[in-house]
Write a structure and sequence with these properties.
heterodimer, A: Rossmann fold, 4-stranded antiparallel beta sheet, elongated, B: mainly alpha, ABC transporter involved in vitamin B12 uptake, BtuC, two-stranded antiparallel ribbon, 4 strands
Chain lengths: 462, 361
């Protein structure tokens, strides 16, 4: 009885630890966004206050004859506006004259006169003769105004600072709290599970391990006693002639099919080894396995960014009622996720498509969007089903670069099925060749190229 | 003086734009437009009873259609059981108020619980059956419910219909509420339901539903549980329908089984399809075209009163035209024509500019 309770408790603890980890990540990501918005708001407010202050000063400066920079700026903009206004008036006159067949020189001359009068008016308005009274007024009031400005700005700054402090404190406290929780829970978990070392184990740098996997459809053995290991951080290619069972292997790993025999083990994002045969299809992504599809599966009604957010579905902490009432947590999470999505799009070089709808975009871009979507879920293993299908040579070369970039920058292991041998031989570190569900050979691309069995399977015997 | 003025006005304009661009602003306008008739009557203008009633019923149907659009437009599940669910809502209010003298809040709670139970049942069915067959099964369920309404005489008063003498109970004491207040409450509830629907469809839940509608396997690969979201879609839509039923009963104060027949479900389906199943404005437009136009406009003329079949024929024609030429719904037509108009206006403005100022070169 006790071991079962312990098991349940351990599972519960694991869930708590994982949720604490996601919370820490959320606070880390949300803090800069919040600080940025606070700063922007503060700067705008200060700008407006300063402008209003200058405006007040201006009404003192003009009669006193003080030649400030702001006065000059205002004078020049007003002159420019006047010029603009008269330019259009001139064009009206010219156009109407042209229609009548006259040249309209008299009217233009009149206009010029009017313009010079108005310009003079403006000059008089901004530079009148200074009176001693106004100068006195200016001298007494100017320091007072300056002082009020300073106090206002100080007030704003202190409120801004307190807001920033409050928020950073809150965030730091939360992070600390969750860290402490994490440590405590981890200790508890260790205590429970110390007697029996982890349920399943894998070799040190292996991420995914298939152990004698078989998948039978009736009498057909689509996959027959297949086993191989995928190492951490490598690009692993699975090749084979048509009908060799590559896609079936994929579907077994992602739980779309339930394998007849055999085990699949996976080291998830938290470093624990899980037995994938126990998992449900929609829970695979939580362990860190994300897949793409052979023919791109977009949500056509949503734009590219929203399409990426679909894949972040499991990361959201807000629940149904949070969504229904548009809760604060949801709004914060949405900001964090959007930022993340934009960063990923920028990394893959497709940020110009962020608000476009996928319908009608080129196939190469759609493939890249699908790749970007896999990255939204913090994947550990990305499974690509024929990424180069339907692409031309240029797009394929571009895709190869992108796949390598993802492997290097996002620390993800990549597992792909591909027919384009050029792409496979170029990017893969290890290649596994299968035929009729059986493993033919495994090794580096060169070894596979030179392997006689593989050549026979592809080209037929002698 | 120029600089400061322009900067401050820019700020003010931005603030006004923030209000008018707010996603809820349009709903507020719609609610206000719906309320105008009632407000006119309060102000003393003689507005006919039928017109006000038409607006009230249209608002109730909008609430029901909103729930249905989540099911059809977002989860991609077709259901013809709406009428039965709305009927249950009306009879819950009727029975609880008349026989048990329960408060309206208890009625709402009970109807939501009932909606969850029925939504769960239909949702589980939908896991195995999809498309047209699901529609047929829900239709069967609705017909069963209709027979129950006809034969459970002690609760529903059978085919004679259940009347309520416009009485509602709020907190124990019997309180008689007149139709004018209920009209205003209906408008407010419609406003709230629109906001909630918008929140839901713009949230991760809405995106998950859309992903599920496009491809179940892709949605599952992205972590969307089909079980959870199908059940959720059915529960939400049933809650909307039952709430619509409760409001219908409190506004009309009379419920008869013949109303809750297949025709009602089909009309709601038609409203959602004619308007545009993925847009809230589209649903308002579609409901108005199918129900509001007939009740509010046609019924004012003697010709249509004498020949009620003509409005039905009009609906049929409308559905054919919309499905043939605007599969996205009438709202698609409205938005595209709006952009075309904008383009044409810009062109006209350019022409006028060239005429007035002479061409640029």
């Amino acid at each position: 009885m006790v071991p079962i309770i312990n098991q349940i408790y351990a599972k519960f603890l694991e869930k708590r630890i994982n949720s604490a980890k996601t919370k820490i990540e959320f606070y880390d990501n949300y803090l800069p966004i919040k600080l940025q918005t606070l700063e922007d708001r503060y700067n705008r407010k200060v700008e407006i206050i300063k402008l209003k202050h200058k405006q007040k000063l201006l009404s003192l400066e003009i009669p006193a004859g003080v030649n400030s920079e702001y006065l000059k700026e205002n004078y020049e903009t007003e002159l420019a506006n006047l010029k603009d206004k008269f330019y259009w008036k001139e064009r009206i006159i010219k156009a109407s004259a042209q229609r009548k067949g006259e040249d309209g020189k008299e009217q233009i001359q009149e206009l010029e006169k009017e313009k010079s009068i108005k310009a003079n008016d403006i000059k008089n308005k901004y530079y009148p003769k200074p009176t001693s009274e106004a100068i006195k007024n200016y001298e007494t009031n100017q320091p007072i105004l300056n002082e009020t400005l300073e106090t206002k700005i100080n007030k704003l700054q202190t409120s801004y600072q307190t807001k920033v402090d409050r928020f950073t404190n809150k965030s730091n406290k939360a992070v600390k709290r969750y860290q402490v929780i994490n440590i405590n829970l981890s200790a508890k978990l260790h205590e429970i599970t110390k007697d029996k070392i982890a349920k399943y184990s894998l070799e040190e740098n292996v991420v995914l391990s298939l152990k004698s996997l078989s998948m039978h459809f009736g009498g057909l053995k689509a996959v027959d006693d297949l086993s191989f290991d995928v190492k951490e951080g490598e690009i692993f290619g699975l090749i084979g002639p048509n009908g060799a069972g590559k896609t079936t292997v994929f579907n077994c790993i992602t739980r779309f099919y339930k394998p007849t025999l055999g085990d699949i083990y996976f080291k998830n994002i938290y470093g624990d080894v899980v037995y994938l045969n126990d998992k449900l299809v929609h829970n695979i992504i939580k362990e860190g396995i994300v897949r793409t599809f052979q023919n791109v599966e977009m949500v056509w009604e949503l734009n590219v960014i929203d399409n990426l957010l679909v894949a972040a579905h499991t990361i959201y902490r807000s629940g149904f009622f949070g969504h229904l009432f548009n809760s604060r947590l949801l709004r914060q999470e949405e900001k964090v996720m959007r930022r993340k999505a934009m960063k990923i799009l920028g990394d893959l070089g497709i940020s110009s498509y962020q608000y476009a709808y996928p319908y009608g975009l080129p196939y190469g871009i759609l493939k890249k969007i699908e790749l970007a979507r896999t990255l939204m879920a913090n994947p550990k293993l990305i499974i690509l089903d024929e990424p180069a299908a339907g692409l031309n040579d240029l797009e394929t070369a571009d895709l190869a670069k992108v796949i390598k970039k993802i492997r290097n920058e996002y620390n993800a292991t990549i597992f792909l099925v591909e027919h384009d041998m050029g792409l496979v031989m170029e990017i893969c570190d290890t290649v596994c060749a299968i035929s009729f569900g059986k493993k033919l050979a495994i090794g580096s691309p060169k070894e596979i190229q030179n392997s006689k069995i593989v050549q026979e399977a592809y080209l037929g015997g002698e | 003086m120029m600089i400061c003025r322009t900067e401050v006005s820019k700020d003010r304009k931005a603030r006004i734009k923030q209000i008018t661009n707010h996603p809820y602003f349009g709903f507020f306008i719609i609610t206000f437009l719906m309320l105008i008739v009632q407000l006119l009557r309060v102000a003393g203008v003689p507005v006919s009873n039928t017109l006000i009633r038409a607006f009230g019923i249209t608002m109730i149907y909008i609430i029901i259609a909103l729930g249905f659009s989540i099911l059809l437009g977002y989860a991609g599940l077709a259901s013809l059981g709406t009428a039965g669910f709305v009927g249950i809502g009306t009879y819950i209010l009727g029975y609880f108020t008349k026989n048990l003298e329960a408060s309206i809040f208890i009625v709402i709670l009970v109807s939501i619980l009932g909606a969850i139970v029925i939504g769960l049942i239909v949702g589980f069915i939908s896991l195995r059956i999809e498309g047209m067959y699901l529609a047929i099964i829900t239709l069967g369920l609705s017909e069963i419910l209709n027979e129950v309404f006809k034969n459970a005489v002690s609760i529903t008063n059978g085919t004679n219909g259940l009347g309520l003498d416009s009485q509602l109970i709020i907190f124990k004491n019997l309180i008689f509420v007149n139709h004018n207040t209920i009209f205003i409450f209906t408008a407010i509830i419609m406003f709230i339901m629109m906001i909630l629907t918008l929140n839901l469809i713009k949230s991760p839940t809405g995106r998950a539903l859309l992903a599920m509608r496009n491809s179940t396997s892709a949605a599952q690969a992205m972590g969307v549980s089909i079980l959870k979201y199908r059940l959720m879609a059915f529960i939400v839509s049933t809650v909307y329908a039952m709430l619509g039923g409760v409001i219908y009963m409190s506004y009309i104060s009379f419920s008869i089984p013949t109303t809750w027949s297949l025709a009602f479900s089909l009309n709601i389906l038609a409203a959602v399809i004619v308007g545009g199943s993925q847009s809230i404005y589209g649903i308002v437009l579609g409901t108005f075209m199918i129900f509001g136009l007939n009740l509010g406009v046609f019924q004012q003329f003697d010709f249509f009163k004498e020949n009620p079949a003509i409005s039905v024929m009009f609906n049929g024609l409308l559905i054919i035209l919309v499905i043939m030429f605007y599969p996205g719904g009438l709202i698609r037509l409205v938005t595209t024509s709006y952009y075309k108009l904008k383009k044409a206006l810009a062109k006209l403005k350019m022409k006028w500019r060239n005429y007035r100022y002479g061409s640029d070169n």
